[in-house]
Amino acid sequence: MNISKRVLNMPFSGTRKLTPYINKAKANGKKIIAMYVGQPDIKTPDAFFKAIRNFNSDVLAYGENNGNPELRLAMSNYYKRCDIDFEPSDIFVTVAGSEAILFSLMITCDPGDNILAVEPFYTDYNLVTHELSIDVKPITTYPENGYHLPSKEKIQSLIDEKTKAILMNHPNNPTGAVYSEQEVNMICDLAIENDLFIISDEVYREFVYDNLQYTSFAHIERAKNNVIIVDSVSKRFSACGARIGNIASKNKEFLENIGKLCQARICAPTIDQEGAIELYKSSNEYIKKVNKEYQHRRDVAYDLLQEIEGIVCQKPEGAFYISAKLPVDNAEKFLIWMLENFDDNGEVPMMSPINGFYKSEGLGTKEVRFAYVLKEERIVRAINILKQALKAYPGRTIK
Asked: Which of 140, 306, 336, 370 is the right S-S partner for 322, CB 3.0 to 4.6 Å?
């Protein structure tokens, strides 16, 4: 018997490659300060757990294919508070944002087609496109200019007859880049001119800092037929384990066909949808408080990183990640070296190597992603240990 080439050729994420080393370090008694995974430590709203506890039924039954009607209404009301005009009929509940990305690509692309995606990008994009035999043509961005987009002409040159969509992550994971209104409009113009879909993953929509204006792709009226929004409760409400996401669009043909895929997987989790209803009804004060906390953590982490000789990074405008180029020969090699050979009083900080967030070979080899999802004192401790480790690392590029 053989395993399919489609799966054999799928890459592991950079963090997944480090897992054996992390587990071995833990077994040897080291404590890992985990800045490598986007798992918030912010408290999930109590209303979610109250709704779960109050759920009472003799039978845990299937839900509706396209999602709990009350949840879709709550999501619609949420979007309208964001000045985005989605009716409940425009929204389909999915098993987290991951399924929303999968479904969006299945509907917009055939095997052998390609999409454009801004790199570095969320590692799951590489996995899902491999699953579906879709090629990714990267729109490469660089740390020196805050990972913002290249010119319209550069992006246009990547589009061919097999290009079906532009996949955006806005704000971006892993870079924290928030695309300006001009950049959003440029992508919309490209999509309209080339008859492409825009799949906009906006799960970090609320995490935009320094009073920066955020423009959703769904705000651009002339592109409403091109835009598909991917969303999730995971980051917004610190509810990663709930596995509730959604797709929203004004494109009627797209919506008619997404129903087929929702039928094939029956429904999203019934009980988690009950909790998600209350999340979307929750006060904006929760989001404001969380935004303020993450902005503070970003400032702490960024200021400390700026003090380390040789690190190149820009202050991220959103999400809860900082991407930085380290003064090392290879970031993944450096992280493994720390796990095997370095600690401070038994503690080791761990970040994600960013090479796995790129499609282009050879890029990101010296870059890491810091997830500032820990309390301030743990962030300070992690970066102070990192500073010591960089001085001791044999492959340091600054002497």
From this structure: 370
Q: Is 290 exposed, middle or buried (0-12, 13-18, 19+ CB in 10 A)?
A: buried
Question: Minimal CA–CA distance to 102: which of 257, 261, 268?
Answer: 261
Tens digit of pLDDT for each residue in 141-154? Answer: 998 889 999 999 99
176 within 8 A of 317, measured Cβ to Cβ: yes
pLDDT surpasses 70 at 399: no
Q: Are strands 227-232 and 197-201 parallel, antiparallel or unpaired?
A: parallel
Burial 133-166 (b: 16+ CB within 10 A, else e): ebebbbbbbebeebbbbeeeeebeebbeeebbbb
d(CA 288, CA 211): 12
What distance in Å separates the CA atoms of residue 298 and residue 152, rounded to the nearest whole number?
A: 30
As given in the structure block, the two tokens for residue 385 are 């240990």
Helix or strand (DSSP H, E) at 184? helix 181-194
Q: What is the pLDDT of residues 356-378, one digit of tens each?
A: 899 999 999 999 999 999 999 99
Strands 367-371 and 321-325: antiparallel
